[in-house]
Amino acid sequence: MAAAVVAFSLLWEIGAPPVAPVALAPLVGAGVGWVLLRRSLRRRRVAAREFPEPWRRALERYVRYYMVLSPEDRARFERDVAVFIDDAEITGVNTTVTDDVRVLVASSAVMLVFGRPSWEYSDLPEILIYPKPFDEDFRCTSHPEFAGMVVPRNALVLSRPALVSSFRREEPFHVGLHEFAHVVDFEDGQFDGVPRGLGLPARRRWQRLIERELVRARRGESALDEYARTNEVELFAVAVESFFKDPRRLRARHGELYDALREYLNQDPAGRP
After folding, report:
1. pLDDT digits (tens, 9 = 90+) for 73-102
2. Cα angle value 111/112/118 (rounded, 5°)
C-alpha cells in the first residue's frame, strides 16, 4: 500500500493522468524490482573494488576474528565490510568517525552474520558514534550508564572507546556484537530475545531456552555476565558476546545455548584452533 501511495504521488507530481489501482500495480511492482536491482548492482560494484589498504591494516590490527580466517574467507570478510560501510550511515556526535571506527563498526555487524552469506541487515538504523559512554538521555556525563544502545527504527548508538576496547579486551565484552545482536533480535518486529527468521516450532524452542537461561542467571548459576539477568533481550545479546569472545567456556557451561547459537549463526568458534 505504501509503495502504491508513493508511486501515485510521483505520477501526480509529474502531471501524469490518474490511473486505476489495477493499472498502477504493475508499475509499483516494476518500481520495487528496479530499487532491488539497483541495490544489487551497487553492492556488486562496491564488492568489485579493491579493498582499501588502510581498512585492511585496521582489520589486521584489531580484528582477531578476521586474522584466523582462511585467505578465501578473509577476502569475503573484506567484501562484506566494504558493502556494509557503503550501506550504513555512520555519524559522529562530537567526535570524528575515522576509517578505523568505520571498519570496527562494520566488523561487528559482519562477524555476527558471516556464517550466513545470504543474510542482510534490513532497515538498518543510523549508527551514531559518541566520544564517551553516555547516560539514558545520551549525555556524556561523569556517571555514564551505557556503552551502546539501540533505539528501534531510529538509531544504534556506540561509544567509540568502548567499541575499540571491545576488540582489544580478552574478557567476553563486545559492545558492537551486543548492539547488533539487538538489531537481529528486533528485525522480526519484536524485542524478545528470540532472533529473526525462525519458524514457529523453532521460536518456541528458543523462547523456552532463553527463559531457562534467564532463571539460571537470576539464581547466580550462569557463566554469563551479570547484565544477562536484566531480561530475555539482554540475555540473548550477552550470550552472543560470549559465543564469540569466550566460546569454549560458553560451550562447557551452557551447552544447549551454545549449540543453539552455533546452529542459528552457522559458526563454531569453540571449534577453531
Report:
1. 999 999 999 999 999 999 999 999 999 999
2. 95
Q: Are residues 72 and 108 in the same domain?
A: yes
Residue 252, in any domain of the structure: yes
Strand partners, 127: 90, 156
Single-letter code of the amino acid located at 72: E
Query: Are 58 and 154 within one domain?
Result: yes
pTM summary value: 0.84
User: Could you say which of 167, 198, 217 is where a domain stops?
Assistant: 167
* Residue 230 in domain: yes
Give yes or no for a contact between 193 and 170, defined as CB atoms under 8 angstroms apart: no
CATH code (residue 88)? 1.10.472.150
Query: Is 7 within a domain?
Result: no
Number of domains present in the structure of the chain: 2
Q: What is the pLDDT of residues 220-273, one digit of tens each?
A: 999 999 999 999 999 999 999 999 999 999 999 999 999 999 999 999 999 987
The strands making up 155-159's β-sheet, listed across from edge to edge, are 90-92, 126-130, 155-159, 148-151
Buried b / exposed e over 64-86, threshold 16 CB at 10 Å, is: ebbeebeeeebeebbbbbbbbbe
Report the chain's C-alpha Rg in angstroms.
Answer: 21
Structural contact between residues 101 and 163, judged by C-beta atoms closer than 8 angstroms = yes
